[in-house]
Amino acid sequence: MSELNKAWWESLAQKITLQDKAFIDGEYVNAEGNATYPVTNPANGELLVNMAACQDADVDKAVAAARRTFDSGVWRNQSPAARKAVMKKLADLIRDEMHELALLETLNMGKPVLTSLNLDIPGSAACFEWYAEAIDKLYGEVAPTDGNNFATITREPIGVVGAVVPWNFPLDIAAWKLAPALIAGNSVVLKPAEQSPHTILRVAELAIKAGLPAGVLNIIPGRGEVAGQALGLHMDVDCIAFTGSTAVGKIFMRYSADSNMKPVWPETGGKSPNLIFADCDFDAAVAGAVAGIFSNQGEICSANSRILVDNRIKEAFVKAFSAAAEKLVVGDPLEADTEVGAIVDKTQVERITGFIERAGQDGARLLTGGNTLHNGCCVQPTIFTDVDPAMEIATEEVFGPVAVVIGFDSEEEAIHIANNSVYGLAASVWSQNISRVHRVSAALRAGTVSVNTVDAIDFSTPFGGYKQSGFGRDLSLHALDKFTQLKTTWIKLD
Q1: Can you point out the beta strands (E) in 116-231?
Q2: What are the domain boundaries of the chain?
């Protein structure tokens, strides 16, 4: 839509009143003691709002509202068809507010606004719709007991769900948690990332409009060390669904051990390999490598940041990969032609540039990029070669537009390098050899292996990792495993 230029988005921004309150028990409320923290626009550093910074007391109120609504049955006792109608209505309302939500997403985390509009917001709506359509097609089981007994196995909602979501896909990943949790009949307390509370705060209001009872969904913005900790330690929260860094995921697991042993489902970091063999479709592999690391400014847990290339084509690949990276338009996320937007905040910019600086000191050779642009808000797509697989830049998650190219001489060596990581979230394989594709895919220790593409994903397929990328799965019917528990009902017959 050519009319959606920067001026159009700036005009829309003038018409929007940004929310600065938490959403608890169906109402927008201030935090205890009127505590706030600043939310800024990463593209220009300007203050957006002083957002309510929820305290322990606010988390208590949100959990109490969720517990009351769950125990009352006002939501969970509705028929699957009735819950389905509410969730489908919510999906429609999200689509109706698509432009405003896309703008909020971009104002919070800096991604190109057309990406928010064309991918993130429609994807969030579709997630609510997919789970809505699925819920009344699930059945329980009858166990094969002897003839004098009858045993059923049914799924029940787990209760009060605590959800903690990151800033890189604020509404998308919130939908990944909320859609299966809500459709299963749970009540939810969700903590958004400090940087990106606005889309989910707006969607909470839309959920009430769609027919979700007040108190079933509560949003508690605030600092991780305060609101996040209070949620993780709360004795009346029945499970935690978390997406974020591996380090923080481990903290939430400790919170569980120190409280009520609630299940914690962490989806955490990654250092995903992209294995490119000499028999690949060369042009497609180059394009895939660019998309796999530079989309969303590289701020993707499954980003293909380790590019493993057959040495027979490495020189040609590096040349083409670098040229493609240099053509990407970096800059203002409200401009229609921007492909790589702003990094979420100054702290993350400094983290990324620190990795870049240390990589050079460690002996990696910078091929392209490495600088900040747009008044320091953006980081150029950056590529290193001559990288030892043991270097920090090849082992630690950067969470930015930084790729390393590592050569290999054999299939076995490529697999060894790919698997030699504490992470195991995703991987990609490029080859025209069907036997190799099967061998390598089976050997890779990753939750998702994309063949001749990158970051393949669908609502029908589970998303999650191996090793320190976490466990449990988002998306697909398997996500319901996190938000339900199995009950056996054994009936002895006369």
Answers
A1: 141-142, 149-157, 160-164, 187-191, 217-219
A2: 6-268+470-488, 273-460
